[in-house]
Amino acid sequence: DQQVKQNSPSLSVQEGRISILNCDYTNSMFDYFLWYKKYPAEGPTFLISISSIKDKNEDGRFTVFLNKSAKHLSLHIVPSQPGDSAVYFCAARNAGKSTFGDGTTLTVKP
Amino acid sequence: EAGVAQSPRYKIIEKRQSVAFWCNPISGHATLYWYQQILGQGPKLLIQFQNNGVVDDSQLPKDRFSAERLKGVDSTLKIQPAKLEDSAVYLCASSPWGRDYYEQYFGPGTRLTVT
C-alpha cells in the first residue's frame, strides 16, 4: 500500500513556462509535507514544505499548494529554468517518519 | 558547514558476501536515518536513530541488515549476506532534534550492486 503517490513519472516543459508537479496521499494523519529535488549522483536536497494547517506556501519561484479534502498537493515552479531539471520527490511526515513518493523527473527545455 | 558524508560511493559485491557502509552526519544533528532507494522508486526508511538509540527499525530486514550508531555520531549499516535484490542506493540523512525540524539533509549515497 503506497501512501504517497506521484502518478507522473516524467514531465517536460519549455523554459520560462510553469511546471506543475503533483502528489497524492492516502493517510490523513500526515501533518507535514515536503518536496525534495535530486540531481544525478547526489542525495535529495530539501526544496520547500507546508504544514497540514496551511493551504499554500511560497518561496521565490516555488509554491506548494495543499488540498486536504482531496489529499493532494502540488509544486508549482514559475518560471521554469533549465537548472530545475531534476527528479522531484514528494514526502509526507507522520510521527516523525517521512514517506516518499517515487519521484517525477522534470526536464526543462531551453 | 560540512554536509553528510558517506563512504564508499560505489560498491560491487557478489551475492552472499558482506558489505558495510559508513555515514558521518552534520555536526550536532541528533537524528540519523538510513534509507534504501531502489532504481525508479523513492527512498524507503530502513532505520532511524535519535542520538545512539533506535527510534524506528520496523522496515529493516533484521535477518541480514544491521546498523549501529556508536556515541551518537557516525553510523554504519551492514548487510550480511547480500542478495541480488539489495542492489540499490543507500542514503544516509540527518536532522537536528526537535519538533520544528522537518527537513532532512542527505548524503550523496552509496550505490551497491550485487551480482
Topology record:
The complex is a heterodimer of chains A (110) and B (115).
Chain A: E1 4-5, E2 10-14, E3 19-25, E4 32-38, E5 45-51, E6 56-59, E7 62-67, E8 72-77, E9 86-94, E10 97-100, E11 104-109
Parallel strand pairs in A: 2-11
Antiparallel strand pairs in A: 1-3, 3-8, 4-5, 4-9, 6-7, 7-8, 9-10, 9-11
Chain B: E1 5-7, E2 10-13, E3 19-24, E4 31-37, E5 44-50, E6 53-56, E7 65-68, E8 75-79, E9 88-95, E10 105-106, E11 110-114
Parallel strand pairs in B: 2-11
Antiparallel strand pairs in B: 1-3, 3-8, 4-5, 4-9, 5-6, 7-8, 9-10, 9-11
The most extensive interface between chains reads:
A-B, 23 and 20 residues
**Shape summary of chain A:** globular
Rounded mean pLDDT of chain B is: 93
- Quaternary structure of the protein: heterodimer
For the terminal residues of chain A, how far apart are their CA atoms? Answer: 38 Å
Compute the number of helices of chain A: 0
Helix content of chain B: under 10%
Binned, the helix content of chain A reads under 10%
Ranges of chain B where pLDDT stays below 50 over 5 or more residues in a row are none
CA-based shape of chain B: globular
Radius of gyration of chain A: 13 Å
Summarize the helix and strand pattern of chain B as letters: EEEEEEEEEEE
List how many beta strands of chain A DSSP finds.
Answer: 11
What is the makeup of the main sheet of chain A? 6 strands, mixed
Give the ordered list of helices and strands of chain A: EEEEEEEEEEE
Proportion of beta-strand residues of chain B: over 45%
Class derived from helix and strand content of chain A:
mainly beta
The major sheet of chain B is characterized as: 7 strands, mixed
Distance between the termini of chain B: 37 Å
